[in-house]
Amino acid sequence: MGLAATYKISEGPTLGAIVEAHKATNLGVERKINEWRLTLTWPIGQGDIRANYERDSGIKGDPVVSAGDSRSTHWAVGYAYHISKRTELYAQYAKITNGPQAHDDFDAGVGGVANGASPKGFALGIIHYY
To answer: Domain limits of the chain?
Structure first.
């Protein structure tokens, strides 16, 4: 469950806020995690500077994981250049800071991040909206 809101300041930046609550049951144990995110998109010329900051509450409800600090913080900053109305090139730098019991990564399918690690990365890409 989540809620998102944005506010555009005249011809300037767009500010956003997102709040989410997640719940899952696995092997009879119900786990919960809440997170919030702040976003900024600032138009510059033919592109946008983009930034976000996210923080989660850590896993609650699991007696093993909940005993330690399973919180994480994620921030990113980047630039998107609009080639056309539907296509953009982008570059972004991001970092995740995990608590001692957290092992969040950029892609849930990749895995292999140790508890307490702080992965960081740089991304280049192209997006085409249909």
So the answer is: 40-128
Distance separating alpha carbons of residues 32 and 24, to the nearest angstrom: 7
* Three-state secondary structure call for residue 130: coil
Q: Is the pTM of this model over 0.90?
A: no
What tokens does 35 get? 């997170």
**Cα torsion angle, 117, 33, 106, 82, sign:** negative
pLDDT, tens digit (0-9, with 9 covering 90-100), for 56-90: 888 787 766 666 688 889 999 999 999 999 999 99
Map 45-62 to HEC letters.
Answer: CCEEEEEEEEEECCCECC
Closest CA to 97 of 123, 112, 109, 115: 115
- Contact status, residue 33 vs residue 58, Cβ threshold 8 Å: yes
